[in-house]
Amino acid sequence: MLKLEDAEDGLTRHDLDETPLNAVLDDARSLSLFASSRVIWAAGAEAALPRRVTETTEEGSAGAAIADFIRNAPPGVVLVFDCGRFDFDGEDKAKLDRVMKFYSAIHEQVEFRPYSPEMARRLAQETARRLELQIGVSELGFLIEALGADAARIVRELEKLSLYAGTERKVTIDDIRQLVPNAQATTIFALVNALGRGDRKKSLDSLDTLMRDGEYLPLALTFLATQFRLALVAQEANLKTSQQIQTYFTKQGIRMWRDRADQLQQTLSVFSKDKLGAAIEKVSWADRALRDTRPDDRVVMEDLVLSLTRT
To answer: I need a labelling partner for 39 at 20 to 30 A (CA). Which of 64, 169, 287, 288 fits?
Structure first.
């Protein structure tokens, strides 16, 4: 364990994108004149792998070097390889499996998997109770949605909200919009629902809110397109409930937390299949218009709203 008095001199950071693996191992073997205990932190562990899988000789040599270090590690030295580039699921899974095989000589491998949506909600509730933060269920769901169920960001933003709101009053949606990055995304879902109901006034109001909050309209259009496409997929798969939606998309490798599934279910409830198809076509038109020479992005988005709410 790194002693407190060794904390400054005993910690060394490397990046394997810039430093060769052998240089990191040589540093870990070196004795320090200033610290009796050392931690060598090597970020970008995946960069040490040969670029081509066929380079088995090079890969075997590197693996042997790591195994040799483990057998003859100096006392008081801890070497940590940090791999944070790949996810545990989807297309990255095979790449991560190769990284784990490359470092298989290291028996103490620790996985930091992302929180599931349910775990993220429990964490948010526990953190709010610990901070004595007055925040309702809907506001907490809004926060989790805005942060994509990212556990570290949820804790950080709740702590920020506790400093801002204190313990005397309840946290509001406006508080979250002001303090939490990307919270404007939820306004886009309000726009989707208003479009589905054919509520032109509410749709234009939501668009105006996005403009006042400084939302980049091409990005907002991308959110709209994603929402409509996912809803169309869910409709063709005959998904009816939020639970069915969450289970289906999770199996497809698409991150889907409960609040996101609820929003998709709401979209399904207000959009028919024909209306979803028409909406996707009109969003595609708006995307081309935003890329073309035009007087104002807002004009394009307002034209989209008017066409989707035409009776």
So the answer is: 64
